[in-house]
Amino acid sequence: MDEFFIYLRLGFDHITDPGGYDHILFVIALCTVYTLQQWRQVLVLVTAFTIGHSITLALATLQLIDYSTALIELLIPVTILITAITNLFYQEPRSRLQSTTPSPNRYWRYGLALVFGLIHGMGFSNYLRSLLGREVSIVQPLLAFNIGLELGQLLIVTLVLAIAFVVLDILRRSRLRWVLVVSGIVAGMAISLILNNELVAGK
């Protein structure tokens, strides 16, 4: 049981680590267009991302799939950039009722989160495999690590929605401006990660 909580903590620390902020940026980009009142939509979105990264995290950790680590490290910021760019085309709801009702033409965001989750799962597995070493059974560490990731992810989502609530509902700032500013910052940081990737920089 002690080992379970060790890996759970490692998973939590990994996704919330400011030093490895690429996954944090992606979760921020996913949630930026939503408000606290839309938490159900955010839950579906995060669940799609969770399903995606859980699949490839398990497959890659169990060494059932093989891939280029350098390529995955490049694709992760690419997913962040694409998500942030889609946010720039966000259209502010005309009413509060409309803002809490999922728009049929936005269901593609759930599919996008699922697909991008597959890529992030391979990124998570790089770290987990380095921790496992010569572990005889990796099922329990894999489960604990994944749960830790989810707890960290939920913390990030909660913080983003809480900040959005303060900015939009208390300070009464423009929702469109909030989306554009946050997405623009995230996109800029993603571009920096892409340019510094070893495949792009030729290191």
TrEMBL record:
Pfam families: HupE_UreJ_2. Keywords: Membrane, Transmembrane, Transmembrane helix. The keyword Glycoprotein does not apply. It comes from the Bacteria. The chain crosses the membrane at residues 20-36, 43-65, 71-90, 110-128, 151-171, 178-195. InterPro entries: Put_HupE_UreJ. This is HupE/UreJ family protein.
